[in-house]
Design brief:
Layout: E1 3-7, E2 10-13, E3 18-25, E4 33-38, E5 45-50, E6 57-59, E7 67-72, E8 77-82, E9 91-97, E10 114-115, E11 119-124
Parallel strand pairs: 2-11
Antiparallel strand pairs: 1-3, 3-8, 4-5, 4-9, 5-6, 7-8, 9-10, 9-11
């Protein structure tokens, strides 16, 4: 069983930075892990993922070059460093863990069986 708890959200101005954390309990080492975001009335959107094995990272085009995903296996924690935030980044951000390390579904929400409760990020212009 895996439990995920996000933190680090908040309200910022456009251009500011935030770092989200996802603290995991349970076995997460051999799993893909990812960040998704969702706004009211819209489907969950892929943001970034880090693959197991190897640690390759994947990003949505909308955040590439601004966001950085990382994981600290020793601390069982995943991070999302968000720089150059824009109003369109406003959403609830959730971290997720997949059953394994399949690459083909790494951007697909349905491939992730474990989810955190989400943390709100609000960016004002």
């Amino acid at each position: 069983q895996v439990q995920l708890v996000e933190s680090g959200g908040g309200s910022v101005q456009a251009g500011d930075s935030l770092r989200l954390s996802c603290a995991a309990s349970g076995r997460t080492l051999s799993r893909n892990m990812a960040w998704f975001r969702q706004t009211s009335g819209k489907e969950r959107e892929f943001v970034a993922a880090v693959r197991w094995p190897g640690g390759s990272t994947y990003y949505a085009d909308s955040v590439k070059g601004r966001f950085t995903i990382s994981r600290d296996n020793a601390k069982n924690t995943m991070y999302l460093q968000m720089n150059g935030l824009k109003p369109e980044d406003t959403a609830v951000y959730s971290c997720a863990a997949a059953p394994g390390g399949i690459l083909s579904t790494i951007r697909t929400p349905d491939a992730y069986g474990y989810w955190g409760q989400g943390t709100q990020v609000t960016v004002s212009s």
